[in-house]
Write a structure and sequence with these properties.
Belongs to the sulfur carrier protein TusA family. By secondary structure, this protein is of the alpha+beta class. It has one domain: TusA-like domain (Translation Initiation Factor IF3). Helices cover 28% and strands 27% of the residues. The protein has two helices and four strands; from the N terminus they run E-H-E-H-E-E. It has a four-stranded mixed β-sheet, with helices on one face. Helix 1 packs across helix 2. The model is unreliable at 1-5 (pLDDT under 50).
Length: 85
């Protein structure tokens, strides 16, 4: 099942100007409120935020679907994983 052309996020968060690790914590908390399989788009600053947040989310088991350079910030699309009970 591929919905690469229909990767419209279920939720969008603007975390530009939010320092590490607060941006990761806010992203993680928002993902926990979402249903498994839903797509979250997060706007992050260049530098440490875009270098750290995607890797941290992947280590939590979430799927990084896309990182797009939006000229001045990055749009990260991450799909909520299924929780391991």
């Amino acid at each position: 099942m591929s919905n690469s052309s229909a990767s419209i996020p279920d939720v969008q968060m603007d975390l530009r100007g939010t320092p590490c690790p607060i941006n990761f914590v806010r992203t993680k908390l928002r993902l926990q409120q979402m249903a498994p399989g839903q797509l979250l788009e997060v706007w992050l600053d260049p530098g440490e935020p875009i270098e750290q947040v995607p890797d941290s989310l992947a280590m939590e088991g979430h799927t990084i679907e896309m990182i797009q350079d939006m000229s001045g910030f990055f749009a990260l699309k991450v799909r909520r994983c299924n929780p391991q009970a």
